[in-house]
Amino acid sequence: MVVGIDDSDHSYYALEWTLHHFFAPGQLQQYHLVVLTAKPPASSVVGIVGVGLAELLPTVEADLKRTVARVMEKAKMLCAEVAQVTYARYETMEGDTRSVICEAVDRHHVEILGIGCHGYSKWKRAVLGSVSDYCTPHAHCSVMVVKRPKHKH
């Protein structure tokens, strides 16, 4: 099972939900857990900001690495505290989140992909893109989109 996360409350909730439902202490462990996050290339982030800002690449790269480290530390803490998971793989892959997740599904021969849902409107999904909208038809496994209950905001 792969759970794709980023630095959002929605993805942390998806990881917690997955841990409670599939990896609870005392529960028979049917799946191996891979926690995956994607790191965009610094050049893609600087490209969004504007042309001619290549001198920002080292700073952006360092910020992205700090974010990835923070995401993985929180994931490890959740795995240990919520479900006492003693073994999980924690992977970071560089690239577009949607592609990274689908590649990991194939590489690990995953049966279930778990991802969070940001709850974007149709317009915002069209502009920003939606990882769940992409992965549902493209991942070669069952895709579980975990939504936060409205009262958990």
UniProtKB/TrEMBL annotation:
Looking at the record, the residues that make up the UspA domain are: 2-147
Family annotation (SUPFAM superfamilies) = Adenine nucleotide alpha hydrolases-like (SSF52402)
Q: Which InterPro entries match?
A: Rossmann-like_a/b/a_fold (IPR014729), Universal_stress_UspA (IPR006015), UspA (IPR006016)
Q: Which Pfam families match?
A: Usp
Q: What is this protein called?
A: UspA domain-containing protein
Species = Urochloa decumbens
User: Which taxonomic lineage does the organism of this UniProt entry have?
Assistant: Eukaryota, Viridiplantae, Streptophyta, Embryophyta, Tracheophyta
